[in-house]
């Protein structure tokens, strides 16, 4: 066992000069009596890609879902501690859940287009916000589709069902659907899980570009993907935050023995 | 130092095959180092004892060393491509790839010294001061090589630091020998060709010291995860304080 310092080790000065857009403070989560997140205090720096890595069941998805209050939708779930968005608790009175989810968007492992046209899928969020007229929607829809490098591929089939797109395109569509609401943070839960290697690489390329204009938190069990895409990486094991570091260091010279075991594929 | 003690006792890989591949590379580097040690030992024996019968052996061993370099290098490339190693595994592969070049060149220097020594056989230089000084330089270089290989085998930070510090001593001894040889050339111009040969041999031994220092800097990178080259850091660290 490595030295039990605290339940997390963060390299000093790691986030110097960066805005701490999301922070969790002593976050714990239970599903019924089972605790799945243990006292996690994690900083997400703005305008960077942060990867959450860890084995299956380590709490990556649960932690992501705490950030935009999706976890509270699970019956029997209970959360302790705080999640702060720009210093304000997301569970506080200032943030209704739909507003939190507009600012902190989410992309799921499997592409989940609505049974609507390509266009309506992207416009969906804005329609919910009350924008009705197509001429108000055209420009943001195009911009969102361009941001995910999908415009050139689908411009001629905007009115066709989104379900006719290839899986890689569907996943980029899901990202466009989140981006159109101009979120501060985009949560991505294994976004390449259902994609072939080529589509995965295109998605990774997209994540790198998006990471410059919005904050991305990427939960992945694909270590190579985390290494390629992220600026910072946080290693979770058994619902506990083991180490946060810049990605270069975490993959070449991690601070903690448990991290080393995990990234080198050893028995932990 | 957080890494050294922990990382020598890492858990086994989930893929036993991967563990075997890394262990195989490590073992082969040590075996290659052993060949180069022998090469240097033979060169020194020819230099000090004037036994020129060992030349053929040196040529054969050089081929083995070159073959080992290519084989290990190719294994490292395979590991990088197939396993995408991370953390200490990645550092091990990178360290080995860098070490290979220096170890191979130490072998080259040894061969050069052996050739020079062969040429000096029959020059009746036994008991002369430069021969003794060269032998002393040779012993230092050989000990540094042994130390560097041991430091790699045991991931021994203190030993690596110690070897790095010894490079200064070998440099100083080389300069003394250089002064001595220059002096002799001035006094006995007829002996200039012979003294020049000795100078090349001394230069080669000094280069062996430099390369051993490189090896130890790679070992420190492997153990610590930090590059200490060109920092002056390693040289100024006191191994006893570790």
UniProtKB/TrEMBL annotation, chain B:
Residues 30-113, 137-219 form the PhoU domain. Signal peptide: none annotated. It comes from Dokdonella koreensis DS-123. Keywords: Cytoplasm, Phosphate transport, Transport. InterPro entries: PhoU, PhoU-like_sf, PhoU_dom. This is Phosphate-specific transport system accessory protein PhoU. One of its GO terms (biological process) is phosphate ion transport. Its main location: cytoplasm. It is found in: Cytoplasm. It comes from the Bacteria. One of its GO terms (cellular component) is cytoplasm. Homodimer. Plays a role in the regulation of phosphate uptake. SUPFAM superfamilies: PhoU-like (SSF109755). Belongs to the PhoU family.
């Amino acid at each position: 066992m490595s030295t039990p310092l605290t339940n997390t080790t963060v390299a000093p000065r790691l986030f110097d000069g960066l805005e701490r857009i999301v922070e969790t403070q002593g976050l714990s989560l239970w599903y019924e009596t089972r605790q799945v997140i243990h006292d996690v205090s994690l900083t997400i720096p703005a305008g960077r890609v942060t990867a959450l890595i860890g084995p299956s069941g380590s709490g990556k998805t649960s932690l992501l879902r705490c950030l935009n209050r999706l976890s509270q939708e699970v019956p029997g779930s209970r959360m302790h501690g705080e999640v702060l968005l720009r210093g304000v608790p997301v569970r506080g009175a200032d943030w209704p859940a739909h507003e939190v989810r507009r600012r902190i968007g989410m992309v799921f492992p499997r592409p989940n287009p609505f049974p609507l046209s390509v266009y309506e899928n992207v416009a969906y969020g804005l329609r919910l916000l009350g924008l009705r007229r197509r001429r108000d929607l055209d420009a943001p829809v195009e911009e969102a589709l361009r941001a995910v490098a999908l415009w050139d591929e689908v411009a001629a089939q905007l009115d066709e069902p989104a379900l006719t797109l290839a899986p890689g395109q569907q996943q980029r569509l899901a990202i466009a659907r989140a981006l159109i609401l101009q979120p501060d943070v985009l949560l991505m839960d294994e976004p390449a899980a259902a994609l072939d290697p080529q589509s995965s690489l295109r998605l990774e390329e997209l994540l790198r570009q998006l990471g410059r204009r919005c904050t991305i938190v990427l939960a992945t069990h694909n270590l190579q993907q985390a290494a390629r895409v992220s600026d910072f990486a946080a290693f979770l094991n058994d619902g506990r935050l083991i180490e946060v570091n810049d990605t270069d260091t975490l993959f070449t010279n991690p601070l903690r023995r448990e991290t080393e075991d995990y990234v080198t594929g050893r028995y932990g | 130092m957080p890494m050294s003690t922990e990382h020598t006792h890492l858990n086994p890989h989930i893929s036993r095959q991967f563990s075997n591949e890394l262990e195989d590379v490590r073992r082969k580097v040590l075996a290659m180092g052993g060949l180069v040690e022998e090469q240097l030992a033979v060169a020194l024996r020819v230099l000090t004892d004037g036994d020129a019968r060992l030349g053929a052996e040196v040529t054969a061993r050089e081929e083995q060393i070159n073959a080992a370099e290519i084989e290990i290098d190719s294994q490292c490339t395979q590991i990088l491509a197939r396993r995408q190693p991370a953390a200490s595994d990645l550092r091990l592969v990178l360290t080995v790839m860098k070490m290979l070049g220096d170890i191979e060149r130490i072998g080259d220097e040894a061969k050069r010294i052996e050739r020079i020594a062969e040429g000096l056989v029959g020059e009746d230089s036994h008991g002369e001061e430069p021969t003794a000084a060269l032998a002393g330089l040779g012993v230092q270089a050989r000990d540094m090589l042994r130390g560097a290989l041991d430091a790699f085998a045991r991931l021994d930070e203190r030993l690596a630091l110690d070897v790095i510090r010894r490079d200064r001593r070998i440099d100083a001894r080389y300069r003394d020998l250089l002064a001595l040889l220059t002096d002799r050339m001035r006094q006995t111009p007829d002996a200039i060709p012979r003294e020049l040969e000795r100078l090349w041999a001394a230069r080669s031994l000094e280069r062996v010291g430099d390369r051993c220092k490189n090896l130890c800097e790679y070992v420190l990178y492997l153990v610590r995860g930090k590059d200490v080259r060109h920092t002056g850091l390693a040289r100024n660290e006191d191994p006893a304080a570790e």
